[in-house]
Write a structure and sequence with these properties.
The chain is an alpha/beta fold and about 475 residues long. About 25% of the residues lie in helices and about 25% in strands. The chain folds into three domains: about 60 residues, no CATH class; about 210 residues, P-loop containing nucleotide triphosphate hydrolases (Rossmann fold), CATH 3.40.50; about 170 residues, 2-Layer Sandwich (Ribosomal Protein S5, domain 2). The protein has 13 helices and 21 strands. It binds thymidine-5'-diphosphate and magnesium ion.
């Protein structure tokens, strides 16, 4: 009888961890050896601990069958076998040109870096109801008959998928459908059917027979995803996995999942917003293209429609200018995008005034208000500050700093900014205004949409004699210059 590594280390009658009676417990635990894995970095530990010794993350260790106990059967990783591994020089390796298959959904192709790469594994994460299943069904329909698709649904019945297809006007599309959650059966069906694209909706519902834990658990997600990655590489099939997200917005399951796949896409959007129609797809990891590229869709009653001119939509402002609004040009990947930044600064009745940010980093707001106080003498310590980026867009770059400050100042002074003014630039801790990448492209995008005046970092202003449309560009270097330009 083998003794469990984790429990019952000392011969005693009752297990100190689970209180199971010694003999019976040993019989049950000895079958599978368990270990603890960090859900962030994958570090393996034999005992549970509050903090991962590998990456220092707290409360991230989860119980799972250890790799050793599983590998002894399959022979994988079973130690050095005496075979010589071949070392080759990098120069002698023939580069494979990755032939991409454009999907026909332009905005998705933009995010993927041109299209689907055979053998690539893509993970698509997003909130429930944001449109993951809809997008993938549209993707498969757009790819047929060039690239036949197999849609594995673990969440919905075939009838439900058919209902959605009808709604999308794709009822007659020749897409193979498989309602199955067992990974072995899925891989078997995919191997037999030889699809060009395999969509698994969702990885959290798929389970492997060999593991005891429930679908969606760390070990199941890790194991089933690993099998699908192996299938993709072995058969050169593009695989798209749908991943649920947690309350914090990260893909549920182990972080290693994101390490395993080639591309990680996040579906974002403001489903609960005023309009809530717009959906954005962002690549946060892409082995075959650029990251942070943004694809923009609108959810209509006939599915997701690409948005060709997003700036025009996010800027749809009507009526007279109002205080607390500033337009900035953000740049996601290669595309400049005009967005409106709103702020409300109001006298606080709390001991600790509130700083609430939607679409921008909350810590950044606190920092900007501190710079505003220290270097421009504007006090907001007794004010609540709310900042929002209109349209559910999330700004991840620092170029929106100046617009946030301008909107906050405008709200504080109850004085609207001129409607034809656009403002962007990064604010440094010592009150300096720092340049941002792609200044000219941003200015050109603003000029295209009829803006006449731009307040930008001095280093981003076009050189003397060079004009961008009929735009008047004001270059600023310090916070004092910004206040002058805004007054
Ligand atoms: P779905 O793709 O099921 O979301 P997910 O797979 O990410 O959970 O999208 C469902 C939502 O989209 C649902 O709220 C209804 C809406 N929807 C439309 O507005 N129009 C449509 O044509 C379709 C198919 C869905
Ligand atoms: Mg779904």
């Amino acid at each position: 009888m083998r003794r469990s590594r984790n429990h019952c280390l000392t011969p005693q009658w009752v297990c100190w961890q689970c209180n199971a009676f010694y003999h019976r417990h040993l019989l049950t635990v000895a079958k599978t050896q368990t270990a603890y894995f960090c859900s962030d970095c994958g570090h393996e530990a034999s005992k549970w601990a509050g903090q991962c010794a590998g990456c220092g993350a707290w409360n991230s260790l989860r119980e799972a069958p250890s790799a050793k106990s599983r590998n002894t059967k399959g022979g994988r990783g079973g130690g050095y076998t005496g075979q010589r591994a071949e070392v080759q020089s990098l120069g002698s390796v023939a580069a494979e040109t990755t032939a991409r298959k454009p999907s026909g959904l332009d905005e998705l192709d933009r995010v993927l870096g041109g299209g689907l790469v055979p053998g690539a594994v893509i993970l698509l994460g997003g909130d429930p109801g944001i449109g993951k299943s809809t997008l993938l069904l549209q993707l498969l329909a757009a790819l047929t008959p060039d690239l036949p698709g197999l849609y594995v649904t673990g969440e919905e019945s075939p009838a439900q998928v058919q209902l959605r297809a009808q709604r999308l006007g794709l009822a007659g599309a020749s897409i193979d459908l498989l309602a199955e959650t067992n990974i072995e059966a899925i891989v078997q069906a995919a191997t037999a059917g030889k699809p060009g694209v395999l969509v698994v909706d969702s990885i959290q519902t798929i389970y492997a027979e060999a593991l005891d834990s429930a679908p969606g658990s760390v070990s199941q997600v890790r194991e089933t995803a690993a099998q699908l990655v192996r299938f993709a590489k072995a058969t050169n099939t593009a695989v798209v996995l749908v991943g649920h997200v947690t309350k914090e917005g990260a893909i549920a399951g182990p972080r290693v999942l994101e390490h395993m796949v080639d591309t990680v896409l996040y579906f974002e959007g403001d489903a609960a917003g005023s309009d809530g129609r717009y959906r954005m797809i962002r690549a946060v990891k892409n082995r075959f293209g650029a990251v942070n590229e943004l694809g923009i869709f609108a959810m209509t009653d006939a599915g997701l429609k690409p948005v060709g001119n997003p700036s025009a939509i996010f800027l749809a402002r009507g009526g007279a200018p109002v205080p607390g609004s500033a337009v900035t040009v953000m740049r996601e990947g290669t595309r400049p995008l005009l967005v409106e930044c709103q702020a409300l600064v109001d006298l606080s009745h709390l001991g600790n005034p509130r700083r609430v940010a939607v679409g921008v980093d909350g810590n950044r707001i606190a920092m900007l208000l501190a710079v505003l106080h220290r270097h421009a003498g504007v006090v907001t310590a007794d004010q609540d500050v709310f900042v929002n980026i209109v349209g559910g867009v999330r700004v991840t770059e620092t170029a929106a700093d100046l617009a946030v400050l301008a909107a906050a100042l405008s709200s504080l002074r109850d004085k609207p900014l001129p409607q034809d003014t656009v403002i962007f630039g990064e604010v440094g801790l010592s009150g300096e205004i720092r340049p941002v990448p792609g200044g000219e492209e941003r200015l050109a995008e603003a000029a295209k949409h009829g803006f006449k005046r731009a307040i930008v970092p001095a280093a981003n202003a076009p050189r003397k004699g060079k004009k961008i449309g009929d735009m008047q560009v004001v270059g600023v270097q310090r916070m004092a210059d910004v206040l002058d330009a805004l007054s």
